[in-house]
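Subject: sequence -> structure tokens, single chain

Hey, anyone have a minute? Need the predicted structure for the following. Not urgent.
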Amino acid sequence: QSGYRIYGEEELERLQQILLYKELGLKLTAIKQILDNPDFDFEQALKTHKIALEAKRASLDQMIRTVEKTLVTYQGGEKMSGEDKFMGFKKEKIAKNEQIYGTEIREKYGDETIDLANQKLMNLTIEENQELEETQKQLFDQLAIALKRNVVEDALQLLIFELHRKWLQFYWPKYEAQAHFGLAQMYLIDERFTNYYDKQVGDGATRILCQSIQKFTQKKNNPQV
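Reply:
Had a minute. Here:
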């Protein structure tokens, strides 16, 4: 009668879950898909959220240290080495990835796999990182070419798949075609992944990428996977 809605315990828990995922940047459609999953584990979600928050804090701490070192350099003190700058760059990259995608990828692949992937990224040399960025540029270039065609031929789809696989191998401790196939499905479901490729290349780029991945992660189309 007062106009206030009375929430039950289950409704309050679901509301808490929704707010948690909104804080991580998920759209309501993606949140609904997660919460309506009968295998959803809220305890694990909280643990993953804690990891994401810790990564965010670590990123801020790293940025503060980088600013402090830059100030020292600017004031004529000890110069910041290229290696220090590169280490800071990698830490910030990992922290940002954890903040944006940490919940989904840890739920899908597990903490151990993601921790190993982060460690592999931390171990990248400057030369390897340059190769990683060049691989991504080539991938974007080929997706742009594919977008201009009414029909994307097999050879171009295979090249797109191979470039994305090469890019993944800079991050993944071990490449698996089945996991690659699953990642493509996640790209299509989650707007953040879709927006990433579509904004970089153009509308429809994510769809072409995922079609290429899903086609060539199947042995009948690619016996080498």
